[in-house]
Each structure stands twice: as C-alpha cells, then as structure tokens.
Amino acid sequence: MAAMGFMADLAAGRSHWWHPTLLGLTSEYGALLPYWLGAWMLQLAPNTETALWLVRLPFVLLLALAMTATWYGTYYLAKSPQAQPVAFAFGGQAQPNDYARTVADGGLLAFLACLGLAQLGHEVTPALAKLGFAGLYFYGVSAMPYRPRLAGAAAVLGLAGLTLSGAPVLAFFFGLGSAVVITLGGRSQSGAASVLRDRRDALTLLLACLYSAALATVLKLWHWKIIAPQALWIDWNGYLQLLVWFTWPAWPFACWAVVRWRHHIGSRHIALPLWMTSVTLLATLFTGSSDRTLLLILPAMASLAAFALPTLQRQMASLVDWFTLLFFSGCGLTIWVVWFAMQTGFPSQPAANVARLAPGFVSEFSLLTVALALLATALWAALVRWRTSRQRSALWKSLALPAGGAVWCWLLLMTLWLPLLDYTQGYTIFVKRVTAQIDTPACVEVQGLGTGQIAALQWYGRLPLVAGEPLVRCGWLLVRPVAGRGVPPTVDPTIWKAKALVQHPADADDATWLMQRQ
C-alpha cells in the first residue's frame, strides 16, 4: 500500500520523479525505478479499477523475469565442462545440452518451492524489482562464455536495475566479486582462448560495476543500514529462523551441493552462485534480518540446489519427499478445513479463531474459486501418485514435490482464503470507517501516520491530506495514538476534540485518532 502511495503521487504530479515522496515522507528503500514503473502504469489507466490491476503488470513481468533468468542461468552454468558428468568408457552418458536442461529444470523447481516467495512474490514493491534484476544479473554472469553480447548487456542492466531499485551496495559487490571469481577461475584452466575469454568477462563486469556506482553517486542512491556489532548477537535467533524457513527447501540442497562439489569450489558453476548467496546472506545479517533483502538470494541458491541433484543419495531424497508430502498435505488440509469452517461454522474451533482474528468478516461462497481449488488439489494428488510410482523418474524428481506443494498451497490461499486475506491485510475497511465519520472535508491534517495508512486514505478514501502545513486550517485531524491508545500530548485540546478511535479490523494496534476542530 505504501508503494502504491508513492506511485500515485508521482503519477499525479505531487512528487518529484528523482525524489519520490508521499506527503513529504521519503521511502525507506531509496528506490526509483519500481516507483517509476508503477506511476507510468497508473498514468495509462483509464479508471481506478483498471489501475489496481494495471499497476501489477510490471511486477508480474519482473517475477517472470526472475524465473526465466534462474532457468537459463542454471542451464549455462551446467554446460560448463567442470559441471558435466564423467563420460562413460563406452558412451551412453547424457548429452551436455540435455544434462544442462535437466539441471535447469531442477533450479526452477527449487526457486518455486522456496517458502519466502509466497508473500513477497505478490507485492507491488521494490523488493520484487530487486529480485527480477538480481535474476537478470545472475543470467548475465552465467551465460557470458556462451552468449557474450547478450549476457554482457543483461549483466549491465541487472546491476543498473538493482542500483535504481535501492540496492546499489549489493550490485557493486555482486559485480566486483564475480569479476574476481572469473579471473581466479580462469587461471586454473588451460588454453589461451579460455583465459582471454575470462579476462574479457571480468572486464565487462568491472565496467558494469563502475557504471552502477556512478549511477548511484549521481542520483545519490548510496545508503547504509549496518546495525551495531553489539546488537548483532541479539537477533541471531530470528536471523536463523528466517533463513531456515524462508529458503526452504533450497538451503539443504545448496549446502549438500557445496559439500559434494568442494573439490571444484573455484569452478564457475559453484563459485558464482556461492558468491551471490554469501553476499546476500551478509547483507541480510547486517541490515537487521530483513526478509526483503533475503529475497535476492533465491536465484543463486536455487541454482546451487540444482547442482546437488546429480549427487543426491536415495535416502536423503526419500527423506525430503516424505517431509514435503506431510508438510504440504497438512498445510493444504488446514486451508480446506478453515475454509469449510468459515462457510458452515463447523468445526467450531477454526470458525471461532477466524471470528476472533477477523471480527466482522463475512465469508461468501464462490463456485469458480472452489472449482479452481478442487482442480489444484486433484493435480497435487496426481503429482504425489507420480512421485511414489516405480516408473523411471527425471533428475529433478526430488524437487517436484516441494515445488508442487508450494504452488498448490499458494493456489488454495489465492482462491479459498483470498477474501479473508484481503479483509485482514488490506486497508479498505479501515478507510471506510474513517470516511463514514467525515462529510466532504476541504482537507484533513495528519500527524504520525505511517505511509501505508496515508496511501490508503488517499487512494481509497480520496481524502485531501496535508502534513501540518501552518497556513492551512483543516477541520479534521488524523493522528497516531500513543501508548495506551491515548491522544498524543502534541495535540492541543483547546483546538481539537476527539471524535473516534478508528482501528484496523484485524489489528487493534493499527489505530488512528480522528479529531475534529473545535
């Protein structure tokens, strides 16, 4: 919602294109390009309803770019001579292209299976733009030995896109470290042609780094959010928990790949994704365990996970299959049970939990969404039957259930639970409660409100908000409560009279005092 507010202000001309603001507040991400994309879509939309769908289009394409880049990046890394399987004495081994395609399929399945993609993959935020450009850079640096011109352009655009999306430091270290990895890896190879090629690739990456650094300097996009070392120990538990669930199931496969390929740790197919993974892990650690930073790890970690598949032992693959089957089957069953409880009131405990967490929510039956959910459930059952059969399976079979289970649960949430999620996560009910008590104000002053609340009041409520301008006398004031839901002491009681405390339907802490001028 906050990102929508920045985009809407840009589209309406209330904010500067080189310095996006929302009612005078700046974005914490320091991004430009994601807000530009959304603002351009808003300018093309003929009405509000169309705008809500059209603004998602660039970010849908960025997510598709990340998926496509992960597949092609893994494909070209798997074509490396060091990544190919050992040739049999009498032939019969897999062809290089066929083997690379199979490994790339595994990389894409590992990307889709990561749990952290479920929520952030739906948001219209700079985080998704960073993921798309990180994937584009990963493809560029992986495909340079085979398609130097296209891959070089992709690497340059990837680093520039990361810089304009609020991650200039990551972009710089991605490019610099990759250039070092390629240079050191080229020294261990024989042949003047390969050494010359690696030097050319390293030079391209260094030039891309300089370009992105110059771009960040000119546009003043450099920003550092490193936490103090003494505070680092406090959040270790949260950091490890985030890392474990956010990148599941890719991280155990990636760790296994590093162990099994440890004698080739300097090879391009291991060193490049390992470098990008390590840089993202450090950035996440030193920026306060941010899940939005950790999102950038998915293309590289999914590629590492794919290279674990040729060396995966049968016992470990069976363990992953059984855990995945139980986990996602349990999640899907829970989604169905809660939906049935919302419709019928039985079982009583899930229905009571929904009523407690989302007071006032009324569930409606939709035949189309139920049909889609049933179809997705049938496909999941067919996938489980295929995986448990004794027929010959592909190399990526160990990632079929994790990816299929993640997509299945995602489809159930986006069909059966979508009205509930809109009610609890959105701001429409909150805005209706505010506007129901205000007639048609000339302006509404705000104090201390978050960017999400401001954006929702402007977008859904069409309220003319101002941020404490001394020459403007508004009849209404919206202010964030202090501890205990009291009126802040900064509000003069001789000027303002408390009208109502408006709360979010699913979050009592997300509240706002509505004040009326005396």
Q: What's the topology here?
A:
Layout: H1 2-12, E1 21-22, E2 25-26, H2 33-44, H3 48-54, H4 57-78, H5 96-113, H6 117-120, H7 126-143, H8 148-164, H9 168-187, H10 192-218, H11 229-232, H12 236-246, H13 250-260, H14 268-286, H15 291-294, H16 298-306, H17 314-344, H18 348-357, H19 367-388, H20 400-415, H21 418-425, H22 428-435, E3 444-447, H23 451-459, E4 465-466, E5 476-479, E6 496-504, E7 507-517
Parallel strand pairs: 3-4, 3-5
Antiparallel strand pairs: 1-2, 5-7, 6-7
Helix pairs in contact: 1-2, 1-23, 4-5, 4-7, 4-16, 5-16, 5-20, 7-8, 8-9, 8-10, 9-10, 9-14, 13-16, 14-16, 17-18, 17-20, 19-20
Straight-line distance between termini: 32 Å
Count of the domains: 4
Mean pLDDT: 90
Shape: globular
Number of helices: 23
Structural class: alpha/beta
The side-by-side strand order for the widest beta sheet comes to 4-3-5-7-6
Task: Give the SSE order as H and E letters.
Answer: HEEHHHHHHHHHHHHHHHHHHHHHEHEEEE
Quantity of strands, as a count: 7
Low-confidence stretches: none
Helix proportion: 55-70%
Description of the structure:
- The chain has about 525 residues and is of the alpha/beta class.
- It has 4 domains: about 1-55, no CATH class; about 60-85 and about 95-310, no CATH class; about 315-425, no CATH class; about 430-515, no CATH class.
- It is built from 23 helices and 7 strands.
- It has helices spanning about 1-10, 35-45, 50-55, 55-80, 95-115, 115-120, 125-145, 150-165, 170-185, 190-220, 230, 235-245, 250-260, 270-285, 290-295, 300-305, 315-345, 350-355, 365-390, 400-415, 420-425, 430-435, 450-460, and strands at about 20, 25, 445, 465, 475-480, 495-505, 505-515.
- It has a 5-stranded mixed sheet with strand order 4-3-5-7-6. A two-stranded antiparallel sheet has the order 1-2.
- Helix 1 (about 1-10) crosses helix 2 (about 35-45), helix 4 packs across helix 5 (about 95-115) and helix 9 packs antiparallel against helix 14.
- The longest helix is centred in the middle third of the chain and has 31 residues, at about 315-345.
- The model has no long low-confidence stretch (mean pLDDT about 90).
